[in-house]
Structures are given as structure tokens and as C-alpha cells.
Design a protein that fits this description.
This protein is of the alpha+beta class. It is built from twelve helices and 14 strands.
């Protein structure tokens, strides 16, 4: 198809648009309507081409060729003449640190309605005005500030609201920052996360001494505040790869965790220095290691319990009666365990029967009625119930195999593979 025929088709379409609108359009809106018909680097370039064709084929004094835009009411002029620089200055003057961003916008409903009406009459589906606005603001900021547009996981989202009498309202959404590491809990008696008072639900009452908490400290509260302070965030959420009971230590190389920091002003961190600050603050109680920045996908990945992962425990076990070394040999038969949800967590966990494997078990007799067990098992196995039997809800168990009631009196986690 030669250029003359193409221009004739384009002219016919342009005249039809004029007939539909009863007016003309700004250069960018002309270009957007013809984005699928004309090659070009941008809609402004296409729009100039359309206006040239119209100028050659209609009276030059035709008052339908003017600066008013029927579709956008000259939003693009407003953007180009001041808004782009205003956004740039706002970001430069703020204390927000970011390397990636995404632009979004809200435009008056009548603009969308007019655009949709024209497209329906043309039986065409060019891109929307919102998409072009987002792209043009994004291109400008990327070139001027050196930041990259990221559609999947931007550091911040810039929302421009044009529903305010053509004085756009600028909203900045700071997306969370995720810091991963491993923690060791060196003492017993502190939970992994904040534990609200069960009576007042965190509001504060006489039962909790008006603290709103059952326990004054937690692993979360010993780690997260230092990270919030460092990145100038507002709040945090702690995500662990499972959790140990309050009376259980987490030793070895530690348990994986991710701290999610809301609205961080800063994203560049000296992670080794941060690690030292946390360890100094939590000295003797909690230690962290291997801190690193990660994507949001790690938040859910580390919380997914899988039978392909394993944990190693050390348990001190008291027996009701004496046992011999020969009696203990039967414990090597522990393999596949069928475990109904333990009584102690049945109020908050689904009542299910889970199958988990004991991969290895080493027994050391400390005295006639006390054992040390080193247990390597699949993730999700409840160790205290593996020992006690939990009123026959766990089968087999140390108690059932020895035919000797057994109780875990001390438990440590030695390794968490994740």
C-alpha cells in the first residue's frame, strides 16, 4: 500500500474523529488514536503528522484546528509545562531514597468516557490516556533522575490524581523493604513475635500490667526496631521460617527470618554495621547473622513448611521409670510418624493428621531416668509430642515404644534447613 493510499485512509479516519467530537484534539490525543496506524517513536510525533494531513486538506481558517482538546482538556499541556518538573523537584527535595519506581494516575471520569465513546465509534482499541500519561511521566523522571521504571517490584509508586480541578494531587507510596537473616535465641522465656495480652487484646489492662503484652520482649522486638530506625520506616512485620516455643532455644546457625519494613525512607544499608547494632542491642538474648536485602517473594517462601526441609533438635527427656540401654535400641525404629494436631495448639490449628519422617535419632543415656535425644526430622514435626505421645495423638512416640511415659523437659533447635 503506497503512501498516498495510506494518507487517504488516515485522512478519512481523522475527519471521522472530527465529526464524532465536533472539535479537534491535542497533538498527543491525535497521535494516540492513530498509534496502531502510523509508525513513530511517540504519540506526539504521530499527532503532528495527523495535523499536517488535516492542514493540507481543510481550510486553514477552520476554527476546529485550535489548541483545545476534546478528550483530555489539555492535560498533556499541563503535564509538559510544569507538572513534570514539579514531581522531579518534590522527589529531589524529599528524603526518599529509591532506585526503581512506577507511575500511576487518576483522571476525571468524563475523559475516560469521551475516549471510550470515540474508540467505540471507530471500532478501534488504541492505548488508553492513562497508559500514555504514566509512560510520559515515567520516561521524564527516568531520564532526569537516573531511576528505572519497574512494573513488578518498584521501590515507590508515584500516583498523580487529576480529579482536583486540574491541580493534581501527588501521592507517594513507599513499598516495603525486606531484610533477611538468621537469628539465634540464646535464652528461654521469650517468644518469637509480640504476644498481645489475651485478656485485653493488646489494649492494656491490670492482667498485663497495662503493657498490652504477655511477654515484655520477643525476638521480633529485639531485632526489628533497629532496622526500622536505620531505614527510617514506620512499622515492621516479622516473618520466620517456623517458630520455636517460648521455652525453647534456637541455636546452631539460627532460624531464617525476614523483616518487612513499611514505608522506608532509606534503602541503602551497611548490613554488617546493622548486624552489629542489633547484636549489641540484644546482647545475651538474640544474635543475628547473614543479613541481606531480598525481594518480597522471600516473605512467603521462608514461611512455607515443606517435608523437603529438615530440622535438628536436642531434647532432654525424663522417664517415669528406669530404662536400660537395650530398651533404648527400639527408638532407632522411629521413622514415619502420624501426628494429629497437638492438644496444646488445637485451639489455633486445624485438626489434621500429618505424616512426617524422623530421618535420624541418636540417644545418650544421662542417668537411669533421663535421656538426651538428637533428632533430625522433616519440617513440621512436633517434637514434644513425638516424645510424650500426646495422649496417643502421635504414633509411634518415644513413650509408646519404650512403654514408659516420657516428657521433654528441655528442648533446643540445633539446625533449621530452609
Amino acid at each position: 500500500m503506497n503512501n498516498k493510499v495510506i494518507n487517504t485512509i488516515i485522512l478519512e479516519k481523522a475527519l471521522k474523529v472530527r465529526e464524532i467530537t465536533g472539535s479537534t484534539l491535542c497533538t498527543r490525543c491525535w497521535g494516540r488514536i492513530f498509534s496502531q496506524d502510523i509508525e513513530g517513536t511517540n504519540n506526539h510525533e504521530r499527532g503532528e503528522y495527523i495535523k499536517q494531513i488535516l492542514a493540507k486538506n481543510i481550510c486553514e481558517n477552520d476554527n476546529l484546528i485550535n489548541d483545545y482538546c476534546y478528550i483530555c482538556d489539555n492535560i498533556f499541556q499541563f503535564i509538559e509545562k510544569g507538572l513534570l518538573n514539579d514531581i522531579k523537584k518534590y522527589l529531589e527535595n524529599s528524603e526518599i531514597e529509591f532506585s526503581t519506581f512506577l507511575v500511576g494516575c487518576r483522571v476525571p471520569a468524563e475523559i475516560i468516557q469521551k475516549e471510550d465513546y470515540i474508540y467505540s465509534k471507530l471500532e478501534d482499541e488504541p492505548e488508553s490516556i492513562k497508559k500514555e500519561i504514566n509512560r510520559e511521566i515515567g520516561k521524564f523522571l527516568s531520564l532526569q533522575m537516573g531511576n528505572e521504571v519497574d512494573f513488578d517490584n518498584p521501590n515507590l509508586v508515584i500516583m498523580v490524581d487529576f480529579n482536583t480541578n486540574m491541580t493534581p494531587n501527588l501521592e507517594i507510596q513507599l513499598n516495603p523493604l525486606f531484610v533477611e537473616g538468621r537469628y539465634r535465641k540464646l535464652i528461654r522465656g521469650i517468644p518469637q513475635t509480640k504476644w498481645p495480652c489475651r485478656k485485653c487484646k493488646g489494649k492494656g489492662c491490670e492482667y498485663c500490667n497495662y503493657t498490652g503484652k504477655l511477654y515484655m520482649e520477643s525476638v521480633e522486638e529485639l531485632i526489628s526496631p533497629q532496622i526500622i530506625k536505620e531505614v527510617k520506616g514506620t512499622e515492621s512485620k516479622f516473618h520466620g521460617a517456623g517458630r520455636e516455643d517460648i521455652d525453647v532455644r534456637m541455636l546452631g546457625n539460627g532460624r531464617p527470618f525476614v523483616v518487612e519494613i513499611k514505608e522506608p525512607q532509606k534503602r541503602t544499608l551497611n548490613l554488617k554495621e546493622l548486624e552489629n547494632k542489633i547484636n549489641l542491642y540484644a546482647a545475651g538474648k538474640v544474635e543475628v547473622s547473614n543479613l541481606k536485602l531480598v525481594g518480597k517473594e522471600r516473605r512467603s517462601q521462608i514461611k512455607t513448611s515443606s517435608t523437603s526441609t529438615y530440622k535438628v533438635y536436642r531434647a532432654i527427656v525424663d522417664l517415669d521409670k528406669e530404662t536400660s540401654n537395650d530398651d533404648l535400641k527400639i527408638l532407632s525404629s522411629l521413622d514415619v510418624i502420624e501426628q494429629r494436631t497437638p492438644l496444646r495448639v488445637s485451639h489455633r490449628r486445624a485438626d489434621l493428621i500429618r505424616k512426617r519422617r524422623v530421618r535420624d535419632l541418636k540417644v545418650k543415656k544421662l542417668d537411669q531416668e533421663r535421656l538426651e535425644l538428637i533428632i533430625e526430622c522433616e519440617g513440621g514435626l512436633y517434637i514434644k509430642e513425638l516424645i510424650s505421645g500426646d495422649e496417643y495423638r502421635t504414633q509411634p512416640s518415644v513413650s509408646s515404644l519404650l512403654q514408659n511415659p516420657a516428657r521433654c523437659v528441655e528442648l533446643d533447635v540445633l539446625d533449621v534447613q530452609n
